Amino acid sequence: GAVVSQHPSWVICKSGTSVKIECRSLDFQATTMFWYRQFPKQSLMLMATSNEGSKATYEQGVEKDKFLINHASLTLSTLTVTSAHPEDSSFYICSARGDAESSSYEQYFGPGTRLTVT
Amino acid sequence: AQKVTQAQTEISVVEKEDVTLDCVYETRDTTYYLFWYKQPPSGELVFLIRRNSFDEQNEISGRYSWNFQKSTSSFNFTITASQVVDSAVYFCALSAYTGRRALTFGSGTRLQVQP
Question: Is B106 close to A1, i.e. CB distance below 8 A?
């Protein structure tokens, strides 16, 4: 299957700082990328959907000014947590989906990024 | 709106026992996809299966089998002869067949297989 990477795999930052998480599709072009958040011992919740070259679509309750998403190319989407607070500590997982020709609309998940805000 | 329910929060079995993880879903779509993922302690999601809603044939892959019952909106997952390495959280998920196709996940079932 296709490979999706995330960087960093874990990060610790201080309250008030910003953190950028990268999601890359390594061997296919991802027309759509999804960002999910998972709190400890909970399920994955969709935060936003990004399409290459256009603005992200955020789910209800997700602050778009706090979680900035940029899908600048067909292989890279970034999630920036701005002015992070301890309650933003979570496991962030991206997934990437190509078009029918490149990936049969399959969705491939990255390994996740564990964010801890102190 | 879509919804996936995994009523079993945690299951503990002894190695070699069979175990079934339940999944019930709700959707207004006539066609859709159903998925099962495994999440070991490392956190990385491991894809297990994707099933089209119009394909109700049960599937078997090694010790894993899936029972899709459209009439009861269920997509249950059975592990035969469980092993310690099967210990993980298992998520059932649902997506639309067309359009955005974001996944809606169930709350997960934590499976503990004791030696």
Answer: no
